[in-house]
Each structure stands twice: as structure tokens, then as C-alpha cells.
Amino acid sequence: MAENSDRQTGRPQAADAGRGSPDSRPTMEQHMVRRTNNQVYKVVVAVWLTLSVASVVLAAMTWVQLSHRLSEARRAVAIREELDAVLSCLLDAETGQRGFTISGDEAFFRTVE
């Protein structure tokens, strides 16, 4: 067959199409398809970059929130330990007071001192 047909357009091409003849240039439809593909790639890359930056920002925000919550938890644990110590001292004082009241022995007050 002397002529080949273009696969996308179905138009016949000359046998010397690949040798620099005017027919070897891409048709308008091929050019539009190529340009459309490039635009699609640009959009995909832009969306990908946007999502990547957004994920990094969200990760940083989450890290900051986590560090704040950890510091608040440390403070809460320290306060609870101090309150436990105060409660223990009050319990010792109550036990000493009860022991003195029941027995009259002042040795029970020594645990409070």
C-alpha cells in the first residue's frame, strides 16, 4: 500500500511523511491533544504539590498541638503528685490526732512533726 493512514484522524498520509515534507508536521488535532495532555499534567502536578504542602502544614499543626497537650499532661501529673503528698500528710495528721485522742499518748504527735 503506497499510503498509510493516520491512526488518530484516519486521514491518508503520503509515503514520504517522515522525511521533512510539509505533511510530516503534526496536525492541528495532534497538536491540541499534545497541548491538552501537557495541561492535564500541569494540573496534576499542581494538585499534587498543593496536597503535599497541605499535608506538611497539617503535620506541623498536629505536632504543635501534641507538644502542648504533653506539657499540659506533665503539669497535671506534677500537680496530682503534690496533691497526693498533701493528702498523705493530712492522713498522717488525722491518724496522729485520733491516736492521741484515744490513748492520750503524745507519741502519736511525733509522726506529724
What would you note in describing this structure?
By secondary structure, the protein is mainly alpha-helical. The chain has one domain (16-111). The chain has 1 helix and 2 strands, in the order E-E-H. A two-stranded antiparallel sheet has the order 1-2. Mean pLDDT is 81; it is low at 14-18.
Oligomerization state? single chain
Indicate the mean pLDDT. Answer: 81
Spatially, the strands of the biggest sheet line up as 1-2
Kindly state the number of beta strands.
2
> What class do helices, strands and sheet pairing give?
mainly alpha
Helical amount among residues, as a percent range? 55-70%
- The shape, in one word, is rod-shaped
How many domains in all?
Answer: 1
Overall radius of gyration? 42 Å
Roughly what fraction of the amino acids lie in strands? under 5%
Summarize the main sheet: 2 strands, antiparallel
Distance between the termini: 114 Å
* Element order: H for helix, E for strand: EEH
* Low-confidence region ranges: 14-18
The number of helical runs is 1
Keywords:
113 residues; mainly alpha; two-stranded antiparallel sheet
Quick summary:
By secondary structure, the chain is mainly alpha-helical. The protein has one domain. 67% of the residues lie in helices and 4% in strands.
Topology of this structure?
Elements: E1 4-5, E2 12-13, H1 28-103
Antiparallel strand pairs: 1-2
